[in-house]
Amino acid sequence: MFNGLEMSxxxxxxxxxxxxxxxxxxxxxxxxxxxxxNKITExxxxxxxxxxxxxxxxxxxxxxxxVVKNFGNIGAVIDSITFTPDFDTKYNYKPYEDFKxxxxxxxxxxxxxxxxxxxxKPITFTINYHKDxxxxxxxxxxxxxxxxxxxxxxxxxxxxxxxxxxxAYSTQELIRTKx
Length: 179
Hints:
The chain is of the alpha+beta class. 30% of the residues lie in helices and 31% in strands.
């Protein structure tokens, strides 16, 4: 291949080949880095719509709420929320059953009271949602019996307590729910 060429010509050709190879490798690394950066940016700026169970104590009563919240940085449109197995609530309704084509903003939460009938069984909720043409589907297992062993430190006001004390108890519960 190099027969008949001067040594300096051979060195120049080898230098050109090595430089070209390094340039091609650099371009491939840059493209891979750009793709990875785009994927990370997309993941960081997508909606994350979840469902979870929250418990609030009002006086001596525990109130259970199913909460749908968008923890993402952008809004999304909820296409459907389904659950299995089918379950009954004390209020005789199926929460979020008709929740379709509803926009949920970043950090927005939508709550519904939900008192599960005993015996408690784990329920799998599936949320389908989209942002523009990108579709997402996430499943969450809610186990109502997981909250049955919770101990909430709360003093129940009596009829003789002052309004200030009742407000203090309510404030305590609000603070606890923000922990």
